[in-house]
Amino acid sequence: MIPEVGQFALILALFVTLVQGTVPLVGAARNNVRLMSVAVPAARLQFVLVGLAFACLAWSFATSDFSVANVALHSNSRLPLHYRVAATWGSHEGSLLLWVLMLAGWGFAVTLFSRNLPAALRARVLAVMGLVAIGFLLFLLATSNPFERAIPAPAEGADLNPLLQDPGMVVHPPMLYMGYVGFSVAFAFAIAALLGGRLDATWARWSRPWTTVAWCFLTCGIMLGSVWAYYELGWGGWWFWDPVENASFMPWLTGTALIHSLAVTEKRGTFRSWTVLLAIVAFSLSLLGTFLVRSGVLTSVHAFATDPTRGIFILVFLAIVIGGSLALYAVRANAVGGGAGFGAVSRESLLLANNVLLIVAMASVLLGTIYPLIVAATGGTISVGAPYFNLVFPILMAPLVFLMGVGPLASWRDAPVPALWTRLRWALAVAIVTAALLPFVMGTWMPLVAVGLFLALWVVAATFVTARQRFAGMPQRGWRARMTANSPAWYGMLVAHLGVAIFIVGVTLVRGYEVEQDVRLEPGQSVAVGGYTFTFRGIAERAGPNYDALAGTFDVHHGDRIDRTLHPEKRTYRASGQVMTEAAISPGLFGDHYVSLGEPVSEAGAAGAWSVRIYVKPFVDWIWGGFFVMALGGLLAVTDRRYRVALRPRESAAALPAAAD
Amino acid sequence: MKPRHRRFAWIGAGVIAIAVAVALVLNAFQSNLVFFFSPSQVVAREAPQGRAFRIGGLVVPGSLQRQSGSLTVRFSVTDTAKTIPVVYTGLLPDLFKEGKGVVAQGTLQPDGVFHATEVLAKHDENYMPPEAKSALEQAQRKGGTMATTQYPHGATQ
Question: Domain of A326?
Answer without folding.
Answer: 166-342
